[in-house]
Specification:
Blueprint lengths: L6 E7 L2 H14 L5 E5 L6 H12 L13 E5 L5 E6 L6 H6 L2 H4 L4 E6 L12 E8 L5 E8 L1 H18 L2
Parallel strand pairs: 2-5, 2-6, 4-5
Antiparallel strand pairs: 1-7, 3-4, 6-7
Helix pairs in contact: 1-2, 1-5
The structure holds adenosine-5'-diphosphate and magnesium ion.
């Protein structure tokens, strides 16, 4: 990615349970206004990670793939909203505008976007970008790039949580 990065972290996952647990740790650290971009091929584990985020964030409903709906809104009993967007079927920027993404990307919401590269220039400069790379059958390499100070702090909080959980 060409943009400036304010923090970077690489983590190997050895199975879907690990990927979901990593998502749950990030979900605990998320706040309103955070934007998470999940990039990688089909089957790379983006939705598994999002499912974990939903658990850690405390969503009332399970996060499932929104591929055919484009976006799901989740709540947890307070004013916060968690949007889970999947742009796999979006062809271009016009579609993203129609989708109402500008309303989701506001300070009151936390937003997760699968296939964020489809947004092109609509993607806000400040976000946490995660690349998912397929290794062996159950191996995935997750690389986190924080863009902007706010998301660098988020990445640091996440890193501290997983360090504590793994006991290392
Ligand atoms: N380490 C891993 N992390 C995440 N998913 C894994 C892993 N190993 C195997 N898988 C499997 O890969 C698939 C990932 O699916 P999904 O999360 O829907 O992908 P994506 O949303 O990136 O298209 C699931 O079937 C999951 O069980
Ligand atoms: Mg998916």
């Amino acid at each position: 990615m060409p943009e400036a990065t304010h923090g970077q972290l690489e983590i190997n996952s050895d199975g879907p349970e690990r990927t979901e647990a990593l998502g749950a740790a990030l979900g605990q650290a998320l706040g309103a206004g955070d934007l998470i971009c999940l990039c990688g091929d089909l089957g790379a584990g983006k939705t598994v990670f999002c499912r974990g985020i939903g658990v850690g964030w405390g969503a009332n409903s399970a996060l499932t793939s929104p591929t055919y709906n484009l976006a799901h809104e989740h709540r947890r009993g307070d004013a916060n909203k968690l949007y889970h967007v999947d742009l796999y079927r979006v062809d271009g920027i016009d579609d993203a505008v129609t989708l109402g993404l500008d309303d989701m990307l506001d300070e009151a919401s936390t937003t997760l976007i699968e296939w964020p590269e489809r947004l092109g220039s609509l993607l806000p400069a400040e976000h946490l970008w995660i690349d998912f790379a397929l290794g062996g059958a159950h191996e995935r390499l997750l690389t986190f790039y924080a863009r902007g100070e706010r998301h660098a702090q988020l990445l640091a909080a996440f890193s501290a949580l997983i360090t504590t959980e793994s006991g290392s």
